[in-house]
Design goal:
CATH class of chain A: Mainly Alpha
Shape of chain A: globular
Strand content of chain B: 15-25%
Largest sheet of chain A: none
Largest sheet of chain B: 6 strands, mixed
Order of helices and strands of chain A: HHHHHHHHHHHHH
Strand content of chain A: under 5%
Oligomer: heterodimer
Distance between the termini of chain A: 44 Å
Helix content of chain B: 25-40%
CATH architecture of chain A: Orthogonal Bundle
Strand order of the largest sheet of chain B: 5-6-7-3-8-9
Helix content of chain A: over 70%
Shape of chain B: globular
CATH superfamily of chain A: ABC transporter involved in vitamin B12 uptake, BtuC
Radius of gyration of chain B: 18 Å
Number of strands of chain B: 9
Number of helices of chain A: 13
């Protein structure tokens, strides 16, 4: 088995996939905790569908660099979604569902009407489930991903205390002179960037899993914000890394294998949480 | 000039006013209690004072050089907080956020301040406990400690004793009273009219009849007499 793994690791595209996979896992899990606690678990799903729609447009327009169109559209949607959430909380889930389904439908429609490739269902499938794109990354894309990931991690560390304050109690932060709206905007932009990045890895359908599973697993085990955040990042990296290795060895699709590992990790954490909670009581 | 001057203020949601034409002012060192029936707009009033929502009409003038990051606020608990994985220390420390500005991390003084306020609220031994596992009274103390970290001049409290038992309620009132004697201006929403007339220096009654005045004036007024009688009747 290790021989086989060693052989695969000699291919640059396998190494790229591992690097990008681990980086995206860190980024998505960092903000996952905030999103889950803010009751925005589904925003990953909604935004990834928006990104899918934007990608369809980019494909039809024959843009050489899809990112130029996909990133701004996703960022704008993220800002709009998080904004509706503040004014009327009941509406936020409906807004996410609406944008998510709408963008998905329009994306598929556009791809169907103006398709330039002969293998349409294959294209759609790989955009949604990311079946092969992570294995076709080139060096430039890897560097882009490295750069953006470092930016996300640095921003998260610098604004960690502010993100905590705004997540725990937005009104208190606003009332006592913290620019809560500004930080919400920042969170929205970071999320959009992460989602566009993660589309390469697991495809748009499975991004939610990457965002929420590590956070939920960590919340079973730990009881303060810092530990939960660190634990979810570590868990996410372990799951992504082992998911990619398993998928290479077993020949399974990368995205769904990673999510499967995440689900198993959640189950383990859930049981562990019950056991340790039982002991403590 | 007064700390807060409210002029012709009408407040409500979506430009529909619940309370109309409020006029009063709060001076440094006052202890103002806002009383009134459920749904009369007490919390809306407080949120408007904090600029969390826009007034329908009228003005709130801020005097004495009061800055936003000198205000402490004890809100009602939100659903999000009920299962939030955060330690007591993390939450109390987050009260210092307003002092930080753009600085990313807390300074030594701010950490010290958080410790001091935890000590004052008697929750120091809970500092590493998870917030959601605490009792209602303990949670309320944590949020009050956080508000104390934020305040330098004014403390706004939205029903600080709701859901607390009589003993803890009395302790809470004593704490707030001490803070007021130390020179912090207190604005508090309360259901508990008996405590309001016992501790407050001024009372604002909103509802069908609007009244603003000192405690003694309130006890003499029609609104006050009626409300006090009602509450006594309700409790008997």
């Amino acid at each position: 088995m290790f021989d086989k793994l060693g052989m695969y690791l000699q291919f640059p595209f396998v190494r790229y996939a591992l690097i990008v996979g681990v980086l995206i896992a860190i980024c998505s899990s960092l903000l996952g905790v905030t999103l889950v606690l803010k009751r925005f678990s589904f925003i990953g799903d909604g935004l990834s569908h928006v990104a899918f729609g934007a990608m369809a447009i980019a494909a039809v327009l024959n843009l050489t660099n899809e990112m130029l169109l996909v990133l701004p559209i996703t960022v704008i949607s993220a800002v709009l979604l998080l904004r509706t959430g503040q004014n009327a909380r009941i509406k936020s889930d409906a807004a996410i569902a609406m944008i998510s389904v709408g963008a998905l439908a329009f994306g598929y429609l556009i791809m169907n009407l103006f398709s330039t490739s002969s293998n349409l269902s294959g294209d759609v499938c790989s955009t949604l489930f990311g079946s092969t794109s992570i294995l076709t990354l080139n060096q430039k894309e890897v560097w882009l991903c490295v750069g953006l990931s470092i930016a996300v991690v640095v921003i998260f560390i610098l604004f960690y205390n502010k993100i905590f304050a705004v997540t725990f109690d937005e009104n208190f932060s606003k009332a006592t002179g913290t620019n809560a709206n500004g930080y919400n905007l920042l969170i929205a932009i970071i999320i959009a960037v992460i989602i566009v990045l993660a589309m390469n890895l697991v495809g748009s359908l499975l991004i939610s899993a990457l965002v929420i599973f590590p956070a939920l697993s960590a919340m079973r085990l730990f009881r303060n914000f810092k530990s939960v955040t660190i634990c979810s990042a570590v868990l996410s990296v372990i799951c992504a890394f082992s998911g990619i290795i398993i998928s290479i060895l077993a020949g399974t699709p990368v995205g769904s294998t990673i999510v499967a590992v995440d689900v198993i990790a959640f189950a383990v954490c859930y049981v562990a949480g019950i056991i340790s909670g039982g002991v403590r009581k | 000039m007064a700390l807060l001057t409210i002029q012709n203020l009408s407040l409500g949601y979506d430009s529909r006013a619940i309370v109309k034409n409020l006029n009063f002012s709060v001076n440094t060192g006052d202890y103002l209690c806002i009383v009134g029936e459920n749904g009369s707009g007490k919390t809306t009033h407080m949120k408007t004072l904090l600029h969390l929502q826009e007034p329908v009409s009228g003005q709130i003038l801020i005097g004495d050089g009061l800055k936003k990051n000198e205000i402490g606020y004890l809100p009602q608990q939100t659903i999000v907080q009920k299962d939030f994985p955060a330690s007591v220390r993390e939450i109390v420390l987050s009260g210092c956020q307003g002092r930080c500005g753009l600085r990313p991390f807390y300074s030594k003084e701010e950490k010290h301040l958080a410790e001091e306020n935890m000590e004052r609220m008697g929750i120091k031994e809970l500092r590493n406990r998870c917030y959601r596992e605490l009792s209602g009274g303990q949670q309320q103390r944590v949020l009050l400690a956080r508000a104390l970290c934020a305040t330098r001049k004014v403390l706004l409290l939205d029903e600080p004793v709701s859901g607390l038992d009589p003993k803890v309620t009395a302790e809470m009132y004593a704490l707030i009273n001490d803070l007021n004697h130390e020179g912090i201006t207190v604005i508090m929403i309360s259901h508990d009219i008996a405590a309001a007339v016992r501790y407050a220096s001024h009372i604002l009654h909103i509802g069908n009849a609007v009244f603003y005045g000192t405690r003694n004036e309130y006890l003499e007024s029609d609104a006050g007499k009626f409300f006090l009688m009602q509450q006594k009747g309700g409790e008997a």
